[in-house]
Amino acid sequence: MGITSLCDRLESGGWIKRQPSPTDRRVKEIVFEHKASLELEAALAIGDVVQAQALAGLDAAQRKQLMSLLRKVHGNLTSL
User: Fold this and answer.
1) Same domain, yes or no, for 47 and 74?
2) What is the mean pLDDT of residues 30-51?
């Protein structure tokens, strides 16, 4: 599925609105509709809870080390 068809589906479902760009008439800007904003807030809150649970018991130094290691793993995987 391409980006255009995905945006078509999101727009028909009332999740986004496409509007002309004020600076470039060739461009359509994507704006979240109210229900999408509410769902995004809920998803981010769930993410915060999951992150807190995943990192429970780690001090600041351990969290920093973990993030550094994960960045290295990510770099390894993206270079494949």
Assistant:
1) yes
2) 97
